[in-house]
Q: What sequence folds into this?
């Protein structure tokens, strides 16, 4: 019975790490695209002057 409880907890912990990693990857993509978009807009804005 204890082994089953350990497996469930381990599986839950692995799922938590997987979800955390997916969230961090998604956040990195959002931040990276915002930075890149801001850089492009800044370059276009400076070229018009």
A:
């Amino acid at each position: 019975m204890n082994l089953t409880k350990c497996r469930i907890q381990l599986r839950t912990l692995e799922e938590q790490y997987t979800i955390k990693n997916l969230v961090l990857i998604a956040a990195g993509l959002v931040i990276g695209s915002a930075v890149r978009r801001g850089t492009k807009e800044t370059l276009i804005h400076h070229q018009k002057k």
